[in-house]
Amino acid sequence: MIVGHFLKWVDTARVAERAAAAAALARAYVQKELPFEERCAAEAALTLLLDDPSAKVRLAMAEALSMSRHAPLQVICALADDQPEVSGVVLARSPLLSDADLIDLVAGRAPATQKVIADRPAVSMPLSAAIAEVGDAEACAVLLGNAGAVIASLSFRRIAERHGDLPMVREALIADPRLPSDCRHMLLVKVGEALKRSPLVAALMGAARAERVMRDACVKASLTLIEGTRAEEHAALIEHLRLRGDLTTGFLIRAVTNGKVDFFGAAMVALGEQGEQRVRTLLAGGRDVALCALFRSAGLAEATHKPIITALKVWREVANGKRVAGVQEVSWLMLQALGEAPAAEELAGLLKAIHVEALRDNARRHALAIAAA
Prior knowledge:
- This protein is mainly α.
- Helices cover 74% and strands 0% of the residues.
- It is built from 23 helices and no strands.
């Protein structure tokens, strides 16, 4: 009877009155305060109110029903398909919308809708994958900032591939501790490429020098990245570098010179024909002959063997507390072990460059320490 009176009254009531009444009816429905017959009548009335010409009425219903699991499903679905100010409330909150519903909405709606869905209190892995695949940059940035979102490694990669050139997304990716190491490297490369294309950089340095400087900067950044990469992620990072063509002999030489022995070992496992435990044992205390066989199986040139073995022996002593050494000393000893063979001219140039960089870095740190004293 109450609902019947409501339906007769609603045709003549003002917008504010209709909105208040619709909200009250919706709250009564979800709070289960009505007898069964009245609940059925209330559901019919709420369904009828979907046709109200005022968005304020529909918004009042959306706010009252959006967080309830007991709301009428047909009303929720209709409100989710309403104009943005109404649908946003339901899309952001309603537990009645399934992943399938939300994925369809992500695929077929405007960026504003994608952002609202990406910011829901809980975003499942399949829904995150859909946003990563088709969402615009702002929606992906919102997803990355959502602590309630479960994001797969593959989804991180898709976001990095699609929107990693944009500072907003790049910063959100880098700030996420869950970001896989290969994605971090991808972002480093994108930053380098963006700087290289900058008209200002090209004007100041020239195209050739800018190319060389950015390439060197990316290599150094990649070595720094290894420090923050968990051992279990080394294989993925190595595969990423290999597919990009960045897992070069020069990069491996730099890695071992800088003491990244675990990463170097993972690279030997990926490139050679030895198991992980076998490689670890060899790097920890294997004889020179066995190490040379390992390096050959990984495709490293003969000229690199002695310098690498020299570096490994120094880092072993450092790890065992028998010696204090750094990149400067290791690179010099590697250069001495290389000798003056004509075939090793390029490798000698690389080791000399690493040694000079280490000299400059150490001198800079020393000067800063003196200035700070």
